[in-house]
Amino acid sequence: MIKILIADDHAVVRKGLKQILAETSDIVAASEAKNGQEVLEKVRKSDYDIVMLDISMPGRSGIEILKQLKDEKPEVLVLVLSMHPEEQYAVRALKAGASGYLTKDSAPEELIEAIRKISQGGKYITASLAEKLAFDLEIDSEKPLHETLSDREYEVMCKIASGKTIKEIAEELFLSVKTISTYRSRILEKMGMKNNTQLVHYALKNRLLD
User: Fold this and answer.
1) Long-range CB contacts for residues 87-94, cutoff 8 Å, separation at least 24
2) 100-103 β-sheet, strand order
3) Are 40 and 65 in contact (CB under 8 A)?
4) Selection from 4, 118, 96 nearest residue 52 by Cα
5) With a threshold of 0.90, does the pTM exceed it?
6) Which of 15, 110, 185, 207 sits a CA distance of 20 to 30 A from 147?
7) pLDDT tens-digit profile, the chain (210 residues)
8) Which domains, from first to last, does the chain contain?
């Protein structure tokens, strides 16, 4: 039996995922968590085969939680299930140790297939993402500007580009306005930009917005 920990801050999503898993004979939703800290606490106390992890939860980012999970329990497999399109977070998630990446609009059958493949030691990515990864390996060019950002800087950049204010971002990430302002300054400096408008144009051009 494949034991799953479902980590998502939306109760309706957790319930839906449990219903999908309940229709299988070899996968069980053993527990659930609504934020990153809860994920870490549950994994420390119990054994799970796979953590189904959302990227966007209150507090620390899903990527940070993923990295800590893999540091503390390298044997735990992680399937990232996110509302964000692959272009935004898939490569970062895989580099941070995820065994697979799926968007929340995937078919239930694909989710089950991903869980089974990952439980057997495989990786699960869609054909379009596999193509992108292969293409990235082929081209020997400089990294895109956004890949020079840290995971937290990247998260803040996406939120700025989507039109959120510094105050709104600070509240969402449970950080101070001053800290977010510092991130913004660092992002603009690293990307050689002067204002939020340039960030928006860049994000749209590179398909980084939902």
Assistant:
1) 87/132, 87/206, 87/207, 87/208, 88/158, 88/208, 88/210, 89/55, 89/63, 90/125, 90/129, 91/132, 91/133, 91/136, 92/63, 92/151, 92/154, 93/55, 93/62, 93/63, 93/66, 94/123, 94/125
2) 27-33, 2-7, 50-53, 77-82, 100-103
3) yes
4) 4
5) no
6) 110
7) 999 999 999 999 999 999 999 999 999 999 999 999 999 999 999 999 999 999 888 777 788 899 999 999 989 999 999 888 777 788 888 888 999 999 888 899 999 999 999 999 999 988 777 777 776 665 545 678 888 899 999 999 999 999 999 999 999 999 999 999 999 999 998 888 989 999 999 999 888 886
8) 2-136 (3.40.50.2300), 145-205 (1.10.10.10)
**Token match 């980084």: residue?**
208
- Residue keyed to tokens 């993923």: 66
Residue 45 tokens, joined: 């106390």
